[in-house]
Amino acid sequence: MRRIGGLILSWHCLFSHADAQQQRGGLMLETGWPSPRGQLDIVSTCGRMVLEVWPPARVIPPDAAPMPDVGSARGDDGVSRLIDEVAALYGHEAPLMKAIVRVESNFDVRAVSRKGAVGLMQVMPATASGLGVADPAIRLLEPGVNLRAGARHLRTLRDRYPQRLDLALAAYNAGEGAVQRWSGVPPYPETRRYVESVLSWYGVYQDSGAVRERRSITRCS
Description:
alpha+beta, 5-stranded mixed sheet, disordered C terminus
């Protein structure tokens, strides 16, 4: 058994208050709130164990969307590139738009909610129509149309709430009227979870461009 900082390494890697489990390379990884929940990949080799931590430690609320595997965090490559282009066009950070897409639709271009929100950014047809999108119920299923409509709407909200990304996200989820009525993020559990989740994923996508931290640990015989 080896102790490194607050991390205990033996047959199990443990953080205190463990509430989630992932299987990595035959070893059990347990992470939990309020401990940092970066993704840890355990690679077991003869006589050595490599602990790879990615992204850098970041606190994520327990009811937020789960931390991604490396592939799912990036989303489809074609969609990801399109998000990069649309984000630049409307002055958004690409990691922020990817976070919204991840929480809204999990990168499903054909997602339709029970309330009728459509596509990657779950844009309401009425909102898209107000932005000049013809036949929005159909056109919003096109990734490019959906991302541009969602980015334009988000741009309006960010301009209305400068320096308050949390309010812009709350308005994207619950509507501007709700934010105005409550003079802040509405106390709706869904909206509060939404804002926390998007901000957490925003951090994940920002971190995903960083060089991975890799540490090699010699296993005791």
